[in-house]
Design a protein that fits this description.
This protein is of the alpha+beta class. The chain has helices at 41-51, 58-68; strands at 11-15, 24-28, 35-38. β2 and β3 (35-38) form a beta hairpin.
Amino acid sequence: MSLSPKYLAYLIRLWREGDSKSWRATLQNPHTGERRSFSDLATLLSFLEEQTHERRTPCQQQDDNHHREGGDKQPTHK
């Protein structure tokens, strides 16, 4: 059983290239210098979830999609 770390530090750089609507990112570990590149924010977030051993439930993902689409009501969960 792997324990989740209590502290992580990263330097994250975000940018858009040209007229692109999607964000690109690099993430650098300041302790090791290791650098990773991401072609979109979803991939970056997925990596961070892996590092923290966090996984979004389908219900949480539905909430995120709802907010992105400009919904003004909170979905109900049973």
